[in-house]
Structures are given as C-alpha cells and as structure tokens.
Write a structure and sequence with these properties.
Elements lengths: L5 E6 L5 H18 L8 E6 L4 H6 L7 E6 L2 E4 L7 H12 L8 H9 L15
Parallel strand pairs: 1-2
Antiparallel strand pairs: 1-3, 3-4
Helix pairs in contact: 1-3
Length: 128
C-alpha cells in the first residue's frame, strides 16, 4: 500500500519566482506518478510554507521550492536543478522502484553463493 510514502512539494507564495514556475508543472508531476506502476505506493502533496511556517521549519525546509520524497522513514531530496515535470517525476518513480534491502551476514553469505541471480551489495556504516 501507500504506507507512509509521500512525495512533497514544499512551496512558497507568489513572491517566489521559482515556486511560481513549478506550481503548474507539479500537476504534471502528479499525473506522471499517478499513471506509473508506483502510484499505489505513494501519496503526493504540497505544503505551503507561507501558510504553515512551523511545519516547514520542523521539516528543515530552508529553500523554495523543495521536492522531497519521504520513503519508509527516509527523507530523500531532489537535488537536480532541472525542475521540469518529466525529470522530477522520473526521479521520484526511480526512488520508489528502488528495492534495496538491509542484509545481515547470513544473507550476504547466501547471496554470494547464489550464482543464478546477479546481486549488487553496498557495504556501508550507519542507517540507510
């Protein structure tokens, strides 16, 4: 299901020229995601940071517009400067289609022995 996954546009008022540019394109971003295979796994929203400064401050939003995906407890921000609808929605869809799995030592050993299926393992410290 959609669980707690959200793709959010943190936006500001008409005083913000970049916000005005993405206001209309956000509708196309929403449509692109709604028409994609990941549509059942994400909710799409807009936060008006002029109307709800406390919410945006709590979320750590300090520039507008900000595209943010909240996926299974992780916060991933779209950092590419290209704000056109297709690149933004493609990025979100790719993030939602990423099925990375946390592995313990036993699972890593099992995967390394299984030659029937290719695997990519990223070793990292801390939470992912």
């Amino acid at each position: 299901g959609k669980k707690g996954n959200w793709f959010i546009l943190w936006n500001a008022g008409t005083w913000c020229p970049p916000c005005n540019q993405v206001r209309e394109s956000w509708k196309k971003v929403s449509r692109n995601i709604d028409e994609s295979p990941v549509s059942s796994r994400v909710r799409i929203g807009v936060a008006d940071c002029d109307a709800d400064k406390a919410l945006c401050n709590e979320a750590g939003i300090d520039s507008y517009p900000t595209f943010e995906l909240r996926k299974e407890g992780d916060i991933i921000r779209y950092e590419d400067g290209d704000r056109r609808p297709d690149p933004v929605s493609t990025w979100a869809i790719q993030q939602l289609d990423n099925y990375a799995t946390k592995l313990d030592a036993r699972k890593v050993t099992d995967l390394s022995r299984d030659r029937t299926q290719p695997s990519v393992i990223a070793f990292a410290a801390g939470d992912w």
